[in-house]
């Protein structure tokens, strides 16, 4: 075993968790804090041997785990959720240190949700009873059978939330799992293994293999023994994974990036819209479902810009470990350069900065909340996901124009629409995305479908949709009358 890391007083293993035990690598990579680039220590890098060991362990654990009923699996998962709750403070400290996520957001949003991601799906699995279909000819028993060994790959912007969002239904459905955490923020996934271990999950049911995407992740998703791959991350990685999975015909669920519209109609409550608008800088803009393209009616644009500027000026930029902070750092120096490059190219191309535009004095990995306008729909910054605190603003004169702008990118994850409710709903119906919030933002329910269209992904997660993906649907057909073989039968 490698030495435990001490992260602001929290001990966490840097190693893999395979077949119910910690396993170390000789090869390691260094992990840094986004807040000041200080080192958090060395993390084990998964080799072919570790991936092989994890898949074999998950394969061995599958027959017994999948043979349990949902009701028999539930106590394990309830204990898993409880063990996550017992470690709430540690999860908060770890993710605010390695991912730069706000401590307050972890405490009040992410950790309670991570617990719920496990317990809610365990409960929901009880309702996945066999669905009988009665026809004149036959009685059909439609079953949700566990699929097998599942690979789960998650990004750095919300590792705990997204890993549990996939693990909950995958395990509740009777699958065994291998989680490959993001290499820039792997610590909360490591602590999840401690919680699973303390909950008594049988060895091999849940495994964690740390490592980089290009090395460990690529080896994992190329394995033909996988039954499913559940991925959240960027479009280029998804294309790579889809090819690897395609070679083995392994079904994938792909939750990808966004360039979601934030529409402000002429009849919107402008101050409310502007207050919600400022929320788009949450997590330093590193949020897939944020509305990053503001589309504002000509007649209210000036008022909206003034109102939003007022809210943005009040945002408290600082250390994510400080409960009062509202905007923290960008995850990595490479991401800082990438985000600043987008701003620079937009300005050179003729865009106007309404606010922000450069590094924030708080620290090397801080970027000012930024808003750009005077843009063409074809501009790079309108078309591509920035994944930083950078928003764009365009204006429109009619609903048709707003909808054309909203639909004018290759992405289709989410959206926000502010306006009189009936009007906003009518506009939202014509916006091509997987979901859209009316006069609100971020309302999520575990029973509701989540996912994108176009380049924003394939598949839906949440409620029954998660189980549709993680299960093999089987129809057992029992004829109602005695069956006599005949070649003339239709
Ligand atoms: P990324 O695609 O670079 O990495 C995501 C994960 O994939 C990481 O764990 C990485 O190690 C792994 N990976 C990379 N290459 C791989 C390969 N060849 N084989 C297997 N695994 C590989 O994404 P990121 O930069 O970590 O995260 C940001 C992206 O995630 C953004 O595009 C964001 O919009 C998206 N995201 C989407 C959602 C959603 O629900 N739709 C949620 C959060 C983030």
Can you offer a commentary on this structure?
The protein has helices at 48-67, 70-86, 88-98, 103-125, 159-172, 187-198, 213-221, 235-248, 270-278, 298-313, 333-348, 380-383, 399-406, 421-429, 463-470; strands at residues 5-7, 10-12, 16-18, 21-23, 28-32, 39-44, 131-134, 138-146, 149-153, 176-180, 206-208, 228-232, 252-255, 260-264, 291-297, 352-355, 370-373, 390-396, 411-412, 416-418, 437-438, 453-454, 457-458, 471-479. It is α/β, with parallel strands linked by helices and 490 residues long. A hairpin with a 2-residue loop joins strand 3 and strand 4 (21-23). It has a seven-stranded mixed sheet, with helices on both faces. A six-stranded mixed sheet has the order 11-10-9-12-13-23, with helices on both faces. A three-stranded antiparallel sheet has the order 7-8-24. It is globular. Helices cover 39% and strands 21% of the residues. The protein is built from 15 helices and 24 strands. The mean pLDDT is 97. It folds into two domains: 5-256 and 456-475, Aldehyde Dehydrogenase, Chain A, domain 1 (3-Layer(aba) Sandwich), CATH 3.40.605; 260-438, Aldehyde Dehydrogenase, Chain A, domain 2 (3-Layer(aba) Sandwich), CATH 3.40.309.10. The protein binds nicotinamide-adenine-dinucleotide. Nicotinamide-adenine-dinucleotide is lined by residues 153-158, 180, 182-183, 212-214, 217-218, 221, 232-234, 237, 240-241, 255-258, 288, 385, 387, 413, 452, 457.
